[in-house]
Specification:
- With about 120 residues, this protein is of the alpha+beta class.
- It has a domain of about 70 residues: Beta Barrel (Lipocalin), CATH 2.40.128.
- About 15% of the residues lie in helices and about 35% in strands.
- It contains 1 helix and 8 strands.
- Strand 5 and strand 6 form a beta hairpin.
- The radius of gyration is 26 Å and the shape is elongated.
- It starts with a helix and ends with a strand.
- About 5% of the residues have low confidence.
Length: about 120
Amino acid sequence: MNYQHVTAIALTCVILSACSMVAPLKVFKSETKERSKNPENATEYVCEGNKRFFLRMLNKDNDAWLIFPDHEVNLAKSSTEKNRYVSGSITLALEGDQTTLTDGDVLSYTACKAQLKK
């Protein structure tokens, strides 16, 4: 055996022994806490047609954080209208039981009501 073969064998042994030290990933570990479907410090809104979103107010109510199951969006408080938050074409108008959330012609949530925490 020449020097290159011995080096290759030694390197292979080192790599294989390192692999045995890594713990396998356990996807369904019992120690893992289940995520809540209700985000912390957020209010759920239920709208016409059973459409839902969560809202978390931030930065002394200067930002409205919209939380959906697959994404989140931050809206800044409008400088011209009270209780209105905007980001591009997205507008949230907080008006009691008639809160609305629109995104141009794409999204329209109407008659949204905040759900009281139990």
